[in-house]
Amino acid sequence: MRMQLQGWDDTIVAMATAPGIGAIAVIRISGPKSFDVMNELFPKKDLFVQASHTLHVGLLKDGDIVLDEVVLSLYRGPKSYTGEDVIEISCHGSPYIQEQILQAITKRGVRLAKPGEFTQRAFLKGKMDLAQAEAVADLIASNTEASKRAALHTMRGGFSSDLSQLREALISFSALIELELDFSQEDLEFADRTQFKNLITQLKETTAALIGSFKLGNVIKNGVQVAIIGKPNAGKSTLLNTLLNENRAIVSDIAGTTRDTIEEVLNIDGVLFRLIDTAGIREHTDDAIEQIGVSKSKEKMRAAQVVIYLYDLLNMNVEELQQIVNEFEQENINYILVGNKADTATAAIMTQFVAFKNSMFISAKKNVQIETLKKLLVENTIHGNINTESTIVTNARHYEALVGLMQSLNEVEQGLSNQLPGDLLALDIRQCLHYLGTITGSITHEDQLDYIFSKFCIGK
C-alpha cells in the first residue's frame, strides 16, 4: 500500500518560476492554511466564498504596505495539482517583489517548500503514482520533441497502465493460489497451472519489451555520445563546424591544431547527439601536450556510443583502413567510416573504399553529403522511427525494477515446470508484485521518496 507520511499536513510555499527578472513570476502555496493566509493578504475579496478554478485581480497588501498588483488562481482540494487547497500568485517579475511576497507569506506560519515537494504531495494524495511523478521531472528537463513526448506518455499514465495490466494478471492468479492454501487439506487446485504458465510467458514478453526499450529511452533522455576521430588534419574540426553550422572549432592546415577535446550538442530528428571533436590520433609524436590529447581521444573513442572515423581520401590506403576497422571490431566499437575531401578525390580513389561496411564519402569543407551523414547517425543509433506513443522506459530505477521482475518471472516459470507447491509459488509471485510496486510507488519508503523528489526543482 502507498505509505502515508507524518508531518505532511502543513502549508508550503515556493517560487514556481525560475529565479531572476521577468515580466511575471508565479508563487505557489499549498496546504490547509492557503486560503487563510491569502485572504489576509488580499483584502479586495473574501476568497473563502469564491469558486474553485477562478482568477482574481487585486492588490496584495501586508498590513498597510502594498506588495504588488497580482492575479490569484484558486484551486480547492482535492481538485488541484497537490490534492490540497492551492493558490498560485502571478506577480510582477521583480526579484524584490517576489521576496517581499514570500516573506509576507512565511511570517504567517507557512514554510518554504523543499525540492519536488508539491509533486511529492500529489503522489501521497493519490493524484498520480510514482512513475507519473518522476515523469513530471523528465518533462521539465526535456530538450527534444522525443524526450517531451516520452515524458508526457508516462505522465499521462501510459507506462502505469502497462504495469497495471501486469499486476492485475498476477494478482488474480495469486488469489487463486492463496485460496488453495486455505484448502490444503482437501488437496484442491483452483488455479489452472497450464493457463498460468501461458500467462507467465506473455508477461515475460511484455517485460522484455519494456526492458529492451530502455536503450532507446536512454538515447531519448540523455542523447548519444559521438566521437569524431581520425589522423591529424583529416578535417575533424571542419566536420564539427559544418555539422553545427558555425565556427566552433579552430581550423588550420597545421596538423595537430586540436590539442584537447571539444564537445557540442546537435539535435537531429529529435535526438540529441553530443559531438566530440578529438585531437588527431597518430602513434608517434614528441609533443607532450599532443600526446595527452591523443590519449584523451582514445578514451573518448572507447566511451562513445558511436565513433565517426574520418579519413582523408587522398592520404589513406586500403590496408591501413582495414587495420583500423579490425581494431574497432576487436574492441566492439560501433563505428561509421567517413572518407573526407570527396570533392577533390577521383572516382578511382573512392572505389577502393566502397567495399567497407558502414562507409560513406563527404566533403566537410563543401558541405557535401552532410545531411546523409546525419541520417546515418540516426539510423545507426535508434534503428528505426521513435514511436513515443508506446511506452519507452527512460528511468534507470524503472529499468532495474523491470530486470528484477524478469528474474522473478523466470523463477515462477521454473517453479511451475518443477511442480512446486502453491505456497512456494505464492512467494515468487509476491516478489514479482514487489518489483511492480516499487515502480508505481505502491511499495516504497520515506528515504526513497526523499531521494527521488530531491532531484526535482523547487516549486514543482
Structural topology:
Elements: E1 12-15, E2 22-30, H1 34-41, E3 54-62, E4 65-75, E5 86-93, H2 95-106, E6 111-112, H3 117-124, H4 130-141, H5 145-155, H6 158-182, H7 193-222, E7 224-229, H8 236-244, E8 262-268, E9 271-277, H9 288-303, E10 306-312, H10 318-330, E11 335-340, H11 347-351, E12 359-361, H12 370-382, H13 396-417, H14 422-440, H15 446-454
Parallel strand pairs: 1-6, 7-9, 7-10, 10-11, 11-12
Antiparallel strand pairs: 1-2, 2-5, 3-4, 4-5, 8-9
Helix pairs in contact: 4-5, 6-14, 7-13, 13-14
Low-confidence stretches: 249-260, 281-293
CATH topology name of the largest domain, in short, is: Rossmann fold
Q: Give a count of the beta strands, DSSP E runs of length 2 or more.
A: 12
Count of alpha and pi helical runs: 15
Notes on the structure:
With 460 residues, this protein is α/β, with parallel strands linked by helices. The chain folds into three domains: 12-129, Gyrase A, domain 2 (2-Layer Sandwich), CATH 3.30.1360.120; 140-219 and 395-440, tRNA modification GTPase MnmE domain 2 (Four Helix Bundle (Hemerythrin (Met), subunit A), Up-down Bundle), CATH 1.20.120; 223-382, Rossmann fold, CATH 3.40.50.300. The chain has 15 helices and twelve strands. The protein has helices at 34-41, 95-106, 117-124, 130-141, 145-155, 158-182, 193-222, 236-244, 288-303, 318-330, 347-351, 370-382, 396-417, 422-440, 446-454; strands spanning 12-15, 22-30, 54-62, 65-75, 86-93, 111-112, 224-229, 262-268, 271-277, 306-312, 335-340, 359-361. The chain has a six-stranded mixed beta sheet with strand order 3-4-5-2-1-6. Strands 8-9-7-10-11-12 form a six-stranded mixed beta sheet, with helices on both faces. Strand 3 and strand 4 (65-75) form a beta hairpin. Helix 6 (158-182) runs antiparallel to helix 14. The two termini are 24 Å apart. Residues 249-260 and 281-293 have low confidence and may be disordered.
